[in-house]
Structure formats: C-alpha cells, structure tokens
Amino acid sequence: MADGQQFNIVTEGSVTTPQGFTAGGLHCGLKKTDRHDLGAIVCEVAAAAAAVYTTNVFQAAPIKVTRESLASSGRLRAVIVNSGNANACTGKQGEEDAYSMRNAFAEAIGVANEEVAVASTGVIGELLKMDKVYAGIKQLPGKLQADDQAAEDFSQAILTTDLVKKTIAVELNIDGKAVKIGGAAKGSGMIHPNMATMLGFVTTDANIEPSSLQNLLREVTNVSFNMITVDGDTSTNDMLIALASGLAGNDSLSEAHPSWGSFKAALTFVCVHLAKAIARDGEGATKLVEVRVQGAVNDEAAQAIAKTIIGSSLVKSAVFGADANWGRIIAAVGRAGQPVNPDTVDIALGDIVTLRQSSPVAFDEEQALEYLKGDTVIISVNLNMENGKAIAWGCDLTYDYVRINAAYRT
Fold this sequence. Notes:
- The structure is a single chain.
- By secondary structure, this protein is an alpha+beta fold.
- The protein has 2 domains: 8-280, L-amino peptidase D-ALA esterase/amidase (4-Layer Sandwich); 288-406, ArgJ beta chain, C-terminal domain (Ubiquitin-like (UB roll), Roll).
- It has 11 helices and 15 strands.
- It has helices at residues 61-73, 91-109, 130-139, 148-157, 210-222, 260-280, 299-311, 313-320, 326-334, 365-372, 399-406, and strands at residues 8-9, 21-26, 38-53, 75-85, 116-123, 166-174, 177-186, 199-204, 239-244, 288-296, 346-349, 352-356, 359-360, 376-382, 388-395.
- It is globular.
- It is an enzyme of class 2 (transferase).
- The record marks 196-197 as: Cleavage.
- Keywords: Acyltransferase, Amino-acid biosynthesis, Arginine biosynthesis, Autocatalytic cleavage, Cytoplasm, Multifunctional enzyme, Transferase.
- One of its GO terms (molecular function) is L-glutamate N-acetyltransferase activity.
- This is Arginine biosynthesis bifunctional protein ArgJ.
C-alpha cells in the first residue's frame, strides 16, 4: 500500500477477483489466427451497471444494443464481447446480428435478453460471421469460471492489435467489509480522448446503486480513459462498462457515505492503470509518454493543453527520435485554445529543465538524449497562472505504427 493509498493491489487480479463474477474466452473463428476472439463476464446476481461510450457519430451496433439493455433497469447479468470484427457501419443487418448475439447468449446462460450487454472490436464495415458466433456462444458457458485462467482467457479474447493483456484489481475496506474492484481493457490503435477504440470492463462487489455508479464512472473516466491518446482517432466502438454485484455487503455507497472518497480513489486507480496500459501498448510504440500540466486557469484548461501536447504528432515523433525539441511542446501549448501567459511558461523533460519563464535554459543535450531513450518519458509544463492541473498519457509515433495500420484489413 503506497503512502496515502487506502487500498491494496491484488496480485494477478482481474475482473473475476470481486465476489459474484465469472469470465471466460475462446476462439470461435472470427480472427484469422487461433487467438481467442469471443469472451464474456457473467454475474451471479443482477449487478448495478453503468457505461460510457464513444463520442463518434457513427456508433457501432453493439453500443445501441447495450444502451437499450442498460435503459431497461440499470442492471445487467452479463457482457458478451467479440474481437476481430467491430460490427460497425454494417446497417440493419449489423443491428440484427448484435441483438441476435445478445439474445443467444442470454438464452445460453438463462437470463433475460435485457440483462446482457454486447461489445465488439475489430475491422469496421464487415458483417459478423454469425454461424461462428453462435457456435462459440454454445461453448462459452462451459468456459465461465472465477479463476485466474478464466480471467486470462477473457483478457485475451478482447485483444486486437494489442501486444499485452491489461488487467488490474484492488481491495479496500468499507464498513468492515473487504470490497474489491477488478478491471480488464483492450486498446492499442485508433485511440484518442473522449473514448477511443478501447473496450474497458470494471467489476466490483461493492454495494452501490446504478445512478451513483453511473455518475462516478463518468467522473472517473474524465481523468483516466479520456486523458489518453495514441493517434488522434476516435473509434466507433469504444465502451467502458462497470458492474457492481453488491455481494461485499457494505452499506450502499453514495456521496454521503464516509468511504465514498476511498472508493472513488480506488476506482480511479484501476481506470488510470488500465488507461496507461493502453497508452503504453500503442501500436508500434516504444515508450509511454506522460504529460503533466499545472498552473493553468482551471483543470479544464489544463486537460485541454495536456491533450494537445500528448496528441501532437511532432511531439510524439521527437520523443521517438529522442530529440529534446521543446519547441514542439511550447507550440502545442500555444495552439491548445486555452488562456496562456506567453511570458511565464516552464517546461521540463523529466528533471531536465529546458524552458523557464518562457526563456530557453541551457541543458546537457547528452543527458536529455539518454533520458528520452528510456521507456517512460515525462513532460512537465507549468503555466504559472492559477491552480489548474491535469495529466495525460500517450506514446511515441514510430515507423511500426504506419506498418501496422497500412495493412490492418489485409
């Protein structure tokens, strides 16, 4: 437990760590390789549920289905997800396939259709091979377990161009009860703030009402998943779903509960961990880039500036090339559309100050080169105006990013 941290990280924890949840995954044939491509999370009770979605106007069919399921009662029993095919921009047939996918899995596990959410990720504009989906759904209930292997299988089933799985779980004490929060996510390319081509799944055994969970998830998303970028493209399928079984037995959580701040901090930690893992695993990336902005007129201005810096192709290219070109950073600050005093900006790369009060500072180029060669680069910007602050995460822009996306369909 770190200083000031009121929760513990669970070793090898994931979405099955909280009470009441099973998960699983398998290969049904949607991917050209034999990697898992169909998975599910199931709760033994009707879990309080919340979700946030992509801001892209062209929202994939599974999002429509999931919105409808959540609108019925604010509770879910399961989420089924496939990779290898986004089921996006697939017209009426795509919608029918998403509903069929939901209903078939609901029947397979014996719950109402409206208690199941659907998520998809992969290639846009191609119809799902429903014969393969149906065959996979028939096998999936037999794969659902609460153990580490089942969680691993689920985590693998949601990946596309990702190189690594992204999971986390924490535990904290609320009302004398052990409350756990687990999470798994996928995302590597087409990642940009305001949700990206990412799927995120958070489970908890905390007792919390759907409305409180929804408000909290939206707030936490704003400082985690909405603060990452890989390539500036926002996808059609992005979705973050949270499920709360309530089986920990704590008193119902709300802003009036004395442990609300602790629960919020733990959920934020889980979401930030997953968001950073997505940024670090950006397509072709060689390093994680963290941008810290302080001294802005407010937090919203700091967020906008941090996002602009982390999304700059020139900044990302400079980091890849280990070039301490702070001019690209200051240029990004200036075009972010936020109040900035052009005479008071400080910039540092790690501990190496390159700009103070908007004037260049002599620094050791070799030292900067060695720092930028590391696998994590921290860019700090202080506007020296007010108290607004924010952190954004991204990655460098490499030759491999072009190679991967030049042949994504083929």
